[in-house]
């Protein structure tokens, strides 16, 4: 993550503000698909972070929509607020921070949201583990056949009406290489130190609505998680 920050610094040094823009993103909801097998097999979620540390996640689909809205002029036949987007462009922002718009959550709240949204049978537990344990788990996901292919459109269409998951946001195991895994573990180390407890309005403004919460993500994608059993 430090390398990303150094790259951001280089951009501001090498280009004027009319020729670069940085989109920072917190963790994505879709990361928690990787815990589908653990929830099913062990009825628990394990992360290398204290249960009371606060952090946030967003839906990757919201991020995609936000970047699109900020990059393409809004059409008259959309629900997007032209005034908001045009105002953002006038400000010529070079940094957008895509985070939840109001509340961050804790691991304890994550487990509660997953248990309710996925209608988990039994008492879903949270367990703090060491970073090396998370690395080992994600390395197994890298080779897990359940993460070899993205769901077909027919499976995606089994989500709650009006909340169909976009199949391209599903994480493939092959992309969980050593560098990605190290970055994810580093994110949780940051979270454990309190560096990820932040909210911004950028994502909400670019969407002209509140981003989808992690609670709604679990609720809307029960069938995707069932597919991972």
Please write the string of helix (H) and strand (E) elements. Answer: HEEHEEHHEHEHHHHHH
**Per DSSP, what share of the residues sits in E-state strands of 2 or more residues?**
5-15%
Assembly annotation: single chain
Biggest sheet overview: 2 strands, parallel
Helix segment count? 11
- How far apart, in Å, are the first and last alpha carbons? 32 Å
Low-confidence runs of at least 5 consecutive residues: 154-158
Radius of gyration: 18 Å
Written account of the structure:
The protein is mainly alpha-helical and 229 residues long. It has helices at residues 2-14, 36-42, 60-71, 82-91, 107-117, 131-142, 153-156, 178-192, 202-207, 214-220, 222-226; strands at 22-25, 27-28, 44-47, 57-58, 95-98, 125-128. The strands form 3 sheets. The protein has a two-stranded parallel ribbon with strand order 1-5. Helix 5 runs parallel beside helix 10. The two termini are 32 Å apart. Residues 154-158 have low confidence and may be disordered.
């Amino acid at each position: 993550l430090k390398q990303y920050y150094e790259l951001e610094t280089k951009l501001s040094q090498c280009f004027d503000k009319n020729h670069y823009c940085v989109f920072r993103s917190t963790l994505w909801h879709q990361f928690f698909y990787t815990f589908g097998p653990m929830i099913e097999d062990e009825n628990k979620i394990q992360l290398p972070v204290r249960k009371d540390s606060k952090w946030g996640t967003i839906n990757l689909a919201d991020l995609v929509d936000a970047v699109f809205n900020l990059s393409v002029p809004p059409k008259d036949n959309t629900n997007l607020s032209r005034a908001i987007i045009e105002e953002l462009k006038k400000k010529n922002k070079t940094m957008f921070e895509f985070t939840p718009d109001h509340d961050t959550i804790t691991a304890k709240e994550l487990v509660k949201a997953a248990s309710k949204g996925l209608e988990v049978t039994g008492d879903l537990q949270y367990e703090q583990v060491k970073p090396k344990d998370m690395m080992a788990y994600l390395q197994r996901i890298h080779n897990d056949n359940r993460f070899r292919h993205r769901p077909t459109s027919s499976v995606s269409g089994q989500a709650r009406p009006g909340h169909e998951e976009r199949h391209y946001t599903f994480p493939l195991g092959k992309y969980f290489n050593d560098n990605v895994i190290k970055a994810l573990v580093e994110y949780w180390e940051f979270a454990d130190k309190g560096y990820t407890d932040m909210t911004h309005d950028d994502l909400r403004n670019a969407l002209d609505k509140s981003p989808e919460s992690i609670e709604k993500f679990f609720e809307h994608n029960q069938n995707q998680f069932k597919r991972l059993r």
